[in-house]
Write a structure and sequence with these properties.
315 residues, seven-stranded parallel β-sheet, Rossmann fold, two-stranded parallel sheet, 11 helices, single chain, 32% helix
């Protein structure tokens, strides 16, 4: 099978590329050249912009094209127009931020909490462009980012059967250290770690990077994935306090987690979100339909996260 991956040099892509190559598939990686990855010999590697694909990127016509970086409606529309009739199938990466629960958590919209875990047919956000206020400038892609519009574009056209993967919070070496503020005190041996009480009870599905990459491999190599949307992530989503307790056990930390209201934290550490809205995803569909399962044990994943955190802060 010939698999063309657009992007593929970030956190998840290299693991998916290596695994598909190891299975004997012909893999071509096409990316913008902003960062490189260590790919096996035999992986075809091309640089270019996502708004224009050279003919050599399209020859031979890929059996499957995986878009790791479709962020806007325009990205998705151009992608469909380019590869319809050229590629046999498409896999497009989306996010759990499409759900209504995310809009409510971010206080972009209102409503009662949706029952969790959220299945693929759970209510979606009514608000649009969730990161527009965070964009560094008016021309930045974040002003136009919306995975709901991406999903609608790729799933709403004939001629290019598509699979959508809704990613969780992806963790692993080289990620942006989302647990840094709590892991560092543990690794220093502090007696207490203070956490915001409503966040401590909040649940957000995570996935270790190699496990999430396995979902990409399955979606790309299993034809029955065409036309389906899948949540990706761990089988059970613990509360954040439980997650930190797991890290504590793995690190051998014997201190105490102390839950406090936001007002008791320094202003810079307060998280101004509505944590009554959980972002826990139901991942049964991809497990039952594609046979998805984690490829890294939870213990190994925790150990590697702690190792990365230690190395990242070493003098």
């Amino acid at each position: 099978m010939h698999v063309l991956i657009l992007g593929g040099t970030g956190l998840t892509g290299p693991h998916a590329v290596r695994r598909m190559h190891a299975f004997g598939h012909q893999v071509t990686v096409y990316h913008r050249g902003e960062r490189e990855a260590d790919f096996p010999a035999g992986v075809r590697h091309l640089h270019g912009d996502f708004t224009a694909f050279p003919k050599e990127a399209l020859r031979p016509g890929p059996d499957v094209v995986v878009h790791m970086w479709a962020m806007t409606e325009a990205d998705a529309q151009f992608f469909v127009e380019t590869f319809r009739g050229v590629a046999g199938r498409a896999v497009v990466i989306s996010s759990g931020d499409v759900y209504h629960a995310y809009g409510c958590m971010q206080k972009l919209e209102s409503g009662l909490p949706d029952p969790a875990p959220l299945p693929e047919d759970a209510p979606l956000r009514q608000s649009r462009y969730p990161y527009r206020k965070m964009a560094p400038g008016p021309d930045h892609w974040m002003t136009r980012y919306d995975k709901i519009l991406v999903e609608q574009a790729v799933m709403g056209h004939g001629g290019l059967p598509a699979t959508v993967l809704r990613f969780p919070a992806v963790i692993g070496p080289n990620e942006h250290r989302r647990f840094h503020r709590w892991l560092q005190p543990m690794l220093r041996g502090d007696r207490e770690v203070t956490i915001q009480d409503d966040w401590a009870r909040w649940r957000w599905t995570h996935g270790f990077v190699e496990d999430v990459a396995e979902a990409v491999v399955l979606a790309a190599t299993r034809p029955e994935a065409a036309g389906r949307i899948y949540n990706v992530g761990e089988p059970r989503t613990p509360a954040m306090a439980e997650r930190l307790a797991e890290f504590a056990r793995a690190a051998g930390w014997r201190g105490r987690l102390v839950e406090v209201p936001p007002a008791d934290l320094p202003e810079v550490d307060r998280m101004p979100y509505d944590f009554a809205h959980h972002l826990a995803y139901d991942t049964n569909r991809i497990r039952s339909e594609l046979g998805y399962a984690e490829v890294v044990s939870r213990e190994d994943a925790l150990a590697r996260m702690l190792s990365w955190e230690t190395e990242a802060t070493a003098p």
